[in-house]
Amino acid sequence: xxxxxxxxxxxxxxxxxxxxxxxxxxxxxxxxxxxxxxxxxxxxxxxxxxxxxxxxxxxxxxxxxxxxxxxxxxxxxxxxxxxxxxxxxxxxxxxxxxxxxxxxxxxxxxxxxxxxxxxxxxxxxxxxxxxxxxxxxxxxxxxxxxxxxxxxxxxxxxxxxxxxxxxxxxxxxxxxxxxxxxxxxxxxxxxxxxxxxxxxxxxxxxxxxxxxxxxxxxxxxxxxxxxxxxxxxxxxxxxxxxxxxxxxxxxxxxxxxxxxxxxxxxxxxxxxxxxxxxxxxxxxxxxx
Length: 288
Known about the structure:
Blueprint: H1 2-14, H2 16-21, H3 23-33, H4 35-49, H5 55-76, E1 84-88, H6 90-98, E2 103-107, H7 114-121, E3 128-132, H8 138-147, H9 150-153, E4 155-157, H10 163-172, E5 176-180, E6 190-195, E7 198-203, H11 205-213, E8 217-224, E9 229-238, H12 248-269
Parallel strand pairs: 1-9, 2-5, 2-8, 3-4, 3-5
Antiparallel strand pairs: 6-7, 8-9
């Protein structure tokens, strides 16, 4: 926590250039000490690059992640002047909102989902609520909440009795509900999908929720392109996720595989942007 507060102070008082200079020793530190994350990074990069990943690849991966974490500070502080944003297919969401209809925005740990949340909270351009577990990334969320208290009001906690009711209310009021679909909760049910050439578990929750809410679903990818550049890609996913009666499990698998295919597409285009630094495929036997 003290290290995060120090970086926050440097970022806000000395600027983005000074703060970004710290990313190199931070990257080196984690490259040398975080063996589990290093193995997970190399395992993923081996798949997405279609070649054996080297230490420089892993360092680049960690550096990209660190850069997007740092940029959350500037986004929450309304320093959009630091960034170049290129948005693709923004009309898809604009048309939905103009018609007074809510929608689900399904993201991932590819790139920065914070680009969307900061736009909603700081610039107030989008009525967005984010579904997430309260304990996820608790330290960083706490610091960003101090920087911008409105962050807390943008979260709908998952796993609570009123989660579904609050989500339905937001959608009925013409708001966007965002959630991530590529990380399995500890007690969450899963479905097996093909991703980057291997079978791996994806959570069932997003498709189950979408089918219950009967709301249009769009995909969101906030890709970090290095330096101060981000690309936001919005894609139509479904007017409504329908699970066929008598074939519920097969339907969930089909919809989730479609999501995994689009995630794979963007991961191959921006391989250093996927920030799931854990044993995603369940291959702990991979040597360091």
